[in-house]
Amino acid sequence: xxxxxxxxxxxxxxxxxxxxxxxxxxxxxxxxxxxxxxxxxxxxxxxxxxxxxxxxxxxxxxxxxxxxxxxxxxxxxxxxxxxxxxxxxxxxxxxxxxxxxxxxxxxxxxxxxxxxxxxxxxxxxxxxxxxxxxxxxxxxxxxxxxxxxxxxxxxxxxxxxxxxxxxxxxxxxxxxxxxxxxxxxxxxxxxxxxxxxxxxxxxxxxxxxxxxxxxxxxxxxxxxxxxxxxxxxxxxxxxxxxxxxxxxxxxxxxxxxxxxxxxxxxxxxxxxxxxxxxxxxxxxxxxxxxxxxxxxxxxxxxxxxxxxxxxxxxxxxxxxxxxxxxxxxxxxxxxxxxxxxxxxxxxxxxxxxxxxxxxxxxxxxxxxxxx
Length: 371
Known about the structure:
Layout: E1 3-10, H1 23-38, E2 44-50, E3 53-60, H2 67-86, E4 111-117, E5 123-131, H3 139-147, H4 154-157, E6 165-171, E7 176-182, H5 186-193, E8 199-206, E9 211-216, H6 221-225, E10 235-239, H7 247-251, E11 259-262, E12 268-271, E13 273-274, E14 290-299, E15 302-303, E16 314-315, H8 323-338, H9 357-363
Parallel strand pairs: 13-14
Antiparallel strand pairs: 1-3, 1-4, 2-3, 5-10, 5-14, 6-7, 6-8, 8-9, 9-10, 11-12, 14-15, 14-16
């Protein structure tokens, strides 16, 4: 029997602007998934937030893109959005771009990453969830984790990893994908992933045996809605150890901050800040962009749990090892905001196409004269 890990997220409404998912909405998520667990739809779950996004982590045996699992998430988000409207929360139902469920939440607004695996003797899993940023925010760390020996020592000294990894890269503009193998095609991979506003890592496999190692959400809300309705706020699932990068190697890229697109109104570059769940809330300029990480062990189709049946979840970034990245992010956030609306603080004109800026430019159209 194979085990499936699903992380499905949605901005259904937030407290005090784009700040945080309030307790009543988190409780709706927990109650819905608890009932689903008792019915045998899912085996384990964990509900948390990444800033103003409600995150539903579910472990089950129904496979990827399962209608019942996706319907459960959609119903949970719909119920939470209704509660958000009752409470007059900000952006209630913001990411729910369709009205009728069609069997799969992909293309309907919520972000989703799913991984079906055959359990190994031990399967440590890290789920990453970001807020106020785009799908391309995983390009840099995925490259560092699975292709950079200066970050992942196992690429050099672990015989199960020296054959390298294969990356599936999505062209979000043309809706095409390509698979590149490292180290042989490393330069070509960097050429694509460096354009993080267009090309995104969607899956990673171990080259020698096609073992699935990582998956990310690649939903671009603006391409679905045809206009800016919020940032993509991506999620990712990554397997660790036993011939894959160790958990500690996976976390090396987050010792320092790096720049991602998104931040205020989805229109600016900002420094990513890895934070614990208690700090998973956006403040200055609706940021800085945040990322949380929850770790757990897959066990017999579910999440390894304690004697009371509670899933054993670790809040990975709640650790002083990441204080340096947080300090850097705060300092660089100040540098960028000092530039105001001048590039490169603001995104390129092409990236601003789906924001509200074109409306401003349109007003000035008749004012322009031949030079």
